[in-house]
Design goal:
Number of strands: 0
Helix content: over 70%
Distance between the termini: 36 Å
Order of helices and strands: HHHHHHHHH
Largest sheet: none
């Protein structure tokens, strides 16, 4: 492995660094964006039952806010539950924007790695070609070892760039789609809460279990 990195030249080091950062982002986001951690099942129904039992106090509100991103959105509405509907909706929307920003954390970095890695591989290819033609100029075509070194550097860096970019792009698109799905779920749950608070819905129905 080290021999391949050495043969690819200095360009291999930023490619290797990009692969480590991409892997760390993917692992962290897959853990953080689990459905049960972001939008727990039946959270609105549980909150409504607590409200009906008159047991919803400041401690319950803080526990809801710190429990999950969806809980933070719902807590923003519940802290204004005695006020007009449009104020509740505005507070939920403001909290929702902050939550979405946090859910998308590091995804732009992952997308940048997916875009830059092939360019780094191409840069290594260019340097390999320069090395090869430099060898031709100095030693002519009679030194196959020098030619092989330049061609090897070009091929190794190109392959390394693609090996980093392809999975990074896949997980970038997958995680973006997953975040969009979570946002839609949270919007639906927030609408349920607003309707329940204003008597437009008798109770908050349980949400079917979603896959993580």
């Amino acid at each position: 492995m080290f021999e391949l990195i050495k043969a690819g030249g200095w360009v291999m080091w930023p490619i290797l660094l990009a692969s480590v950062v991409a892997m760390a982002i993917v692992i962290e986001r897959l853990w953080t964006l689990q459905h049960r951690r972001v939008a727990p099942d039946n959270l609105v129904a549980g909150v409504w039952q607590t409200l009906r039992s008159k047991a919803f106090d400041a401690d319950a509100l803080e526990a809801l806010r710190s429990g999950s991103p969806l809980g933070r959105v719902l807590a923003a509405g519940l802290s204004n539950r005695q006020r007009e509907r449009h104020i509740i909706k505005e507070s939920i929307e403001e909290a929702g924007r902050l939550v979405v920003f946090e859910l998308e954390r590091h995804l732009n970095t992952l997308g940048t790695i997916a875009a830059v890695s092939p360019l780094l591989g191409l840069l290594g290819t260019v340097f390999g070609m320069i090395q090869m033609f430099g060898s031709l100029k100095v030693a002519g075509a009679g030194n196959p070892a020098e030619l092989a070194g330049g061609i090897g550097q070009a091929l190794i860096t190109t392959a390394a760039g693609l090996l980093v970019a392809i999975p990074a792009l896949y997980f970038y698109r997958y995680l973006r789609g997953h975040v969009e799905s979570l946002v839609i779920t949270m919007e639906q749950e927030a609408i349920k809460l607003v309707e329940v608070l204003h008597g437009e819905r008798a109770e908050a129905p349980a949400r079917p279990h979603d896959a993580p």
